[in-house]
Amino acid sequence: MLNWFRAGNGTIAILDATNSTKSRRRWIQERCTAENIEALYVESKCDDQNIIMSNIMEVKTTSPDYRGKDPEVAAQDFLNRIRNYEKVYQTIDEDEKDLTYVKLINVGKHVIINKIQDYLQSRVVYYLMNLHIRPRSIWLSRHGESKYNLEGKLGGDADLSDRGEQYARALPELVRRSVGDGRKLTVWTSTLKRTIQTTRFLPFEKLEWKALDELDCGVCDGLTYAEVEERYPEDFQARDDDKYNYRYLGGESYRDVVIRLEPIIMELERSENILIVTHQAILRCIYAYFQNVEQEKSPWMEVPLHTLIRLTPKAYATQEERLKADIPAVSTWRGKGSAARHQGSPSASGMGTPKESGATPSMMSSVGTPSPKLPPPAVWPL
Question: Which residue, 105, 209, 263, 326, is most buried by CB atoms nearer than 10 A?
Answer without folding.
Answer: 209
